[in-house]
Amino acid sequence: MNSNLHILPKPARETDAKIGTPAGADQLSPNVARYQQVKDFVSRKIQDGTWKAGDRLPSEHELVVQFGLSRMTVNRALRELVEQGRIKRIAGVGSFVADDKPQANLLQIARLSDDIRRRGHDYQCRVITVERISASLDIASSLGLHTGESVFHSVCVHLEDGVPMQLEDRYVNPRMAPAFGQQDFTLEQPSDFLVRTVLFDQMEHVVDAVLPTREQAALLQMDAGQPCLLLTRRTWMREDPITLVRCLHPGMRYRLGSRFRTDGNAVTG
User: Fold this and answer.
1) Which fold has domain 1-100?
2) Which of 164, 165, 171, 229 is a Cys-bridge partner for 249, taking CB atoms 3.0 to 4.6 Å apart?
């Protein structure tokens, strides 16, 4: 036998390879799917503050080399992080930590424009339609009217730095707000007008996770397969219904929540 002959190990396949981590990183579990390990690594860096909003992530190629995985596997990890709103990718530029999702208060009617401007961003309201229509069975039932009675209907898209954050679909009882149809809602939000001109003493909020229709997805500039948060709000005055509004938010860009004291009052400020 030739004593100079050596048996060389086979090149490690991706499924056998150990994932390399930079100095100081936690050891990743070999029992977790490879793409998930990349997601977990990036998520931890964001969560512990190592990478902050706006910071650039290592390139896809750098992650491929660092973790010893295929480009397809790393791409899947980054794609899912984008879908979850943790990072954003700019073609030809790179991947960046996404800004924190804005959070709306569930216990009060918040001024969306104020919330956006408070973050130092630009606010726009794009009015799609303001019309008077015949109430369908479900709308009439929600507003205490007969089917076919006249109701005001408005549709607006609210944008933050040019990005749609909310699709507002509103129905208003004309008995409670007869001047609603004559307003210029490019100057004042429908909710602002109603709060300013119509007293209410009851409010109901219901939140659902839904998929948008194709038309809704187009208005929100999102994929119709991505989930949304649907906030349905109704208001009353002395048991008389005032308005029904459905606010649709892309789940990847927005969240809903509240902080309140034990006496039931919302914490403001």
Assistant:
1) Arc Repressor Mutant, subunit A (1.10.10)
2) 229
| Type and span of the H or E element at 41 | helix 34-47
Q: What is the mean pLDDT of residues 198-218?
A: 91
CATH 3.40.1410.10 assigned to domain 103-257? The reply is yes
Between CA 215 and CA 84 the distance in angstroms is 22
In the chain, residues under CATH classification 1.10.10.10 are 1-100
pLDDT digits (tens, 9 = 90+) for 130-177: 999 999 999 999 999 999 999 999 999 999 999 999 999 999 999 999
Query: What's the confidence (pLDDT) of residue 167?
Result: 96
Burial class (CB within 10 angstroms; exposed 0-12, middle 13-18, buried 19+) of 75: middle
CATH 3.40.1410.10 in the chain: give the residue spans. Answer: 103-257
Alpha-carbon distance of 211 to 228, in angstroms, equals: 6
Residue 141's alpha-carbon distances to 21, 93, 191, 244, in angstroms, are 59, 51, 21, 11
Read off the pTM: 0.60
Q: What is the largest CA-CA distance in the chain?
A: 101
Inter-helix orientation angle 34-47/71-83, to 10°: 50
**Would you list the DSSP string of 150-214?**
EEEEEEEEEEETTEEEEEEEEEE-TTT-TTGGG--TTTS-HHHHHHHH---SEEEEEEEEEPPPH
Element holding 237 (H helix, E strand): strand 228-237
